[in-house]
Amino acid sequence: MSILDAKIPSGPLADKWASHKNSVRLVNPANRSRLDIILVGTGLAGAAAASSLGEMGYNVKAFCFQDSPRRAHSVAAQGGINAAKNYRNDGDSVFRLFHDVIKGGDYRAREANVHRAAEVSNQTIDQLVASGVPFARDYSGYLDNRSFGGVQVSRTFYAKGQTGQQCLLGAYSGLIRQVAAGKVTMYPRRDMLEVVVIDGKARGIITRNLVTGEVERHSGHAVVLATGGYGTIYYLSTLAVGSNGSAAWAAHRKGAVFGNPSFVQIHPTSMPQLNDYQAKLTLMSESLRNDGRIWVPKEKEDKRHPNSIPEDERDYYLERRYPAFGNLVPRDVASRAAKERCDAGYGVGDTGLSVYLDFGGAIEKQGKKAIENKYGNLFEMYRKITGINPYEEPMRIYPAGHYTMGGLWVDYNLMTTVPGLFAIGESNFSDHGANRLGAGSLMQCAGDGYFILPVTIGDYLADDIRTSRIPVDGPEFAAAEQEARDRLGRLMAVDGKQTVTSFHKRLGKIMWDHCGMARSEAGLQEARSLIADLKEEFWSEVKVPGRQDRVNQELEKAWRVVDFFELAQLMCRDALDRKESCGAHFREESQTPEGEAQRIDDEYSYVAAWEHKGAGSDHVLHKEQLEFENVEIKERSYK
Amino acid sequence: MKIKLKIWRQESPDSKGGLVDYELDGVSKEMSFLEMLDYLNTTLIERGEEPVAFEHDCREGICGCCSLFINGRPHGVGAEITTCELRMTAFENGNTIVIEPWRAKAFPVIRDLIVDRSAFEKIMQAGGFISANAGAAPEANSIPIPKELADEAFDAAACLGCGACVAACPNASAMLFVSAKISQLALLPQGEVETKRRARDMIAKMDELGFGACSNIGACEAECPKGIEISHIARLNRAFVASAF
Fold first, then answer.
1. How many CB pairs below 8 Å do chains A and B form together?
2. Is B134 in contact with A75 (Cβ distance < 8 A)?
3. What is the pLDDT of residues B180-236, one digit of tens each?
4. Are B45 and A85 a contacting pair at CB < 8 A?
5. Domain end residue (candidates: A401, A424, A448)
6. CA distance B138 to chain A (A)
7. ipTM > 0.95?
8. What's the number of domains chain A is made of?
9. Yes or no, beta carbons of B56 and A387 under 8 Å apart
10. CA of A25: how far to CAs of A21, A119, A459, B21, B142, in Å?
11. What is the pLDDT of residues A558-607, one digit of tens each?
């Protein structure tokens, strides 16, 4: 029997969330103050949850590895946040938003969760505006919108190219207000090392204080992870250097099954890699594709300056292949199309691994001022890094690892398979299927944090109103602490010659080559064996300098890379097992004659949820069959 | 190219620190400044020494983690950039680069180039928010806000909380940081309600934490990586005066 019960409420799709809210148990305000909630990660999802839960009266203990919640990587989301307000009167609705996300995810997401995310999107915009988020406005004073890939309406709210920063700071302001009110206690500069499970329930965590090195115990009646995605498994990605998968993996080791680990979005418009020292790839927002046109020369290896290549010698390949959506096809489609052109020898730049994103026509038509208003800070960012002025010549861009649709499997209540352990935002698998649409991440994170978790966690905590504070001196805490200490000690003891980063880079290259934009049986098998060898080498050759009892950034990195070895194996295993192509998961063996992803719905219309069976044992696959009652499953066409 | 580095090394908060000299060969102009430090750290680890601790995360100029004082300037040379946006094209073969942490009483050193900026958190907790509970918000378009005001609020809201303004100021004043938040929220109708209390409480907290006073020098504006203007300080001062009545 499957261990997966999605707990999807019965009834018509549009009524499920309302009826669920009406039927979940509540915790009365007096009891809330007796309940402790541990919240790990304070990006948009975590900060929104902390502020909501604090306002409701729960005691929240919030943890982040940065010095302040304001630095979480939600801060870097650029283009926007979606909502079904229909302010443009262009036919948008909750159902349309739901439908676009399901289709954009290539029919591999759960209908009920996606519809709920669309439902709460409007309330999220209201909340963020009330919190002081300065979204872009028209001269009328009303909120402005723009378009994003994979949709035919304008539903994206934005604050120049810094929408993530503004949304995060809005949620952060709610969080610090609760800190001031004494309802949220912040524990910054902490890495979560272990989840503590007592009598089958998540009751605490073990952390490492990144300043003193102290290994600490923290307890709560429930534990919420809002720890983001694991795209840094590729080493080079659009993520912050510190983003990592270790908290999710710690939960996985303690019984939380992992959903669709191989579903990773490769973002089509990142700045290309310039050199071998590079520590990250900088994203150029998808919003740029509203006005920018993507092209490569029609001639192979054309070395002319882009401005001297005449119009009729340019191949606007997205417009050619996908006339209906043109430059605004979804991310997976745009990324693969760029890879196809570059692999065929049409790529530009020294390495041949980039394509042009050109604003020449848009500037001619709308004027420089209008373009500057929309994308000023992005153009400036590009100029600072490359020295090229995008007002005068096209940007060069290439795909890069970005967002993980996969993550901890959760039920409709956002609870993992460990009772009392919840996962919200990017850290769960739930809303984006096999490919996320642009401006969908901020939407999901804020919705999960502000409006969904605060309802569903109450239903769980209603059983705990008579449970007193969880003591941290029990055997389960001691055992979890010991596990963490042992592993820290083992890392320090290797005392080899190679840096942690050198291993991370090599792992990233294996994953990018074999489990990135294109995957094949042979490549994935090879990757699995390469990863196993690399892991073995790591444990005999890595050097972690310094001491455990103070700031030690190499030790922090080493802890994360160890988990990445395991997660990388699971990603490859998942990618091997899914012999179809869908969304961002492109199996070379499963494509149409035109080179588009070929889904195999009869066999793979499920969420692959992997259970950890202990070190050295194989993962076990559980399948959550996906039922589509409200959308017609079609070949996903943007032609 | 080959460069010389003088870097502040300090073992822990209570130990004594000092500048340590390094010579680094093989630096490429294509590196970012932080990639140059990554490269230095790789060579240090491979030699069996401890790497230089410095704070960084997004590496694209938006998280505000960077906090390096380079050749006497926060975030180094160049207008409106954070340290992670600084490129080695700004330096020449044979250059000496001095790298220190932010220097301010309110930002004590944790290790090497990492400082403790939790004082900023405390100022924000004193009032850097609008008291809007989730669930209570009105329809987003119910209050039209003139585009000019929304845009000005955005310019103030772009603050990264990095602390360059404090590091640049001879008085180590946090006025630009505080004014950016007060100005943003005062410009918006939804935040205007709490302006007086916010100004009074945030300024009181700033003073309590050991930041200096503003004497209109303007170094903060010159060094702010997001180009936040000192006109916001004027708005803060007006709000502060108004809060007395």
1. 214
2. no
3. 999 999 999 999 999 999 999 999 999 999 999 999 999 999 999 999 999 999 999
4. no
5. A401
6. 6
7. yes
8. 3
9. no
10. 9, 21, 5, 64, 33
11. 999 999 999 999 999 999 999 999 999 999 999 999 889 999 999 999 99
